[in-house]
Input
Amino acid sequence: MKKYLIYLVILLVGLLLGWLLFSGLSKSDTKHEHHETSQTNKMWTCSMHPQIMQPEAGDCPICGMDLIPAEAGADGLSADQFKLSTNAMALANVQTTVVGNGTTENNAIKLSGKIAENEEANAVQVSYFSGRIEQLNISFTGEEVRKGQLLATIYSPELYAAQQELITAASLKEMQPALYKAVRNKLKLWKLSDNQINTIEETGKVTENVPVYATVSGTVTEKLVEQGDYIKLGQPLLKIANLNTVWANFDVYENQIDYFKKGQEVIITTNAYQNKAFKGRVDFIDPILNTKTRTVTLRVVLKNEQNIFKPGMFVSAKVAGVTSNNSEVLTIPSSAILWTGERSVVYLKTDSDQPIFEMREVTLGNLIGDKYEVLEGLFADNEIVTNGTFTVDAAAQLQGKKSMMSKGGNKTMTGHENHLGMQHNTDKNVIAFSKNKRVEVSKTFQKQLKEVYNNYIDLKNALVKEASKDVVKASQLLLDKLLAVDMKLVKNEAHNNWGTLEKEIKSSATVISKSKDIKEQRNHFKVLSSYIIKAVQLFGVNEKVYVEFCPMADNNNGAYWLSKEEKVINPYFGEAMLTCGEVKQVID
Output
């Protein structure tokens, strides 16, 4: 009995020791395995270049500094996804919309156009004989004339001789009636009236200066001669337009042509009469496409007895009730779309509860109202960015993700690339355009944009000096120049891109102009800079521009600005860290 009891105690002790030993080892293995998994999933970044994300420790490919572990929040995102901070979302006023099927009710296509003279009612007053203008009774362009009104008196040697022939032929009309008739007809061809011819014949006196009368009524749109000029037979004297009816000419893009037909009713408005709307009907659609603007001209004839419409006046037209032929097609606001010249992109919010975004390329259809049809790239119930799109795109570039300027992102960048998706020239320290194409615009538009850019530079310099009042003044001047930019100068994707940028620049500059706190001004200057940079990158200002970056601005998140010189002068810190930063891009 005692022997069995000893065996039992030994067995129990052995079981206890085995449990303690193997349990601890299991925990150790599990802990070790978890540690290895954690180490495997950890991402490494650079404190000076947070856009760098590497799967293992090492040196920063840009500055050579040791990489540090990335924040835990960076884990769990796919290669193309990125996250925005709450502060950035609020500053840029980022808004999203859920995509749905079909088009909205009461859709309308909006067109922009200009009032022109009705060419069918235009006339040119010409001279029917040669001579010298002794007196011109039309003083200025815009003067009203009536049919039969005296316009000028002309001395004509050949008409003087013809009058003498008439006097001679009148005395011989019984003997030579054919000669008499031929002379009278010659004077009629020179537009002398029967009364004028009869007066010459009855008085037997030659008129030295022959009067010229208006053959039509209307408004003088152009004076082609001056008093004392010598004129030839058939030479134009005046251009006269009848403005009782005028043309409103509108540009229609080729993907909108199918929505219009002759006789269609159009509602027209103008800034001159903001509370009035005028009805007209489509009279003509140009059968030839303008290959430069990719538009055709649509003409509406307007009644103008009260002289409301002036040639050259800008007008807008709205054609209501336009719907898509495909009831299942998706539509998205034009403010959600970024155009690169080759691609159309939007930003998808991939998590309804978190500010996580991803770029998505889309194929667009027709423009209906202020919305585009989406043929490919999105599905119903997708949530997309509809306001602050350029700010989201700037964040994608900063973090090396797929963006408007870069198709593939720059997750594994080398020392010859930067987070803007541009190729780096190590010889000249210049980053040139390598993956994006500049949108072609007119020199006039570039000149107007340059004035906005110059006021932006003044604003930046005021922030460097920490002069809050000067910041307000510069932002107000920037807004004035922004309003002066003519949207008519840009077409197609350039028009859409500038429309979105102009709205965001205006929003940021307005906030700055109303703030007296230098810290708040600098916060919104960061947002303003992102849009100004986009504008200069896309359209150019016909001079060399430096894009500069400070990694310590915005609570070490980094921020950009533009400069006219390569020397770094930091607007985010002023005297505290005046030279902190580096040139990231040179835009030629």
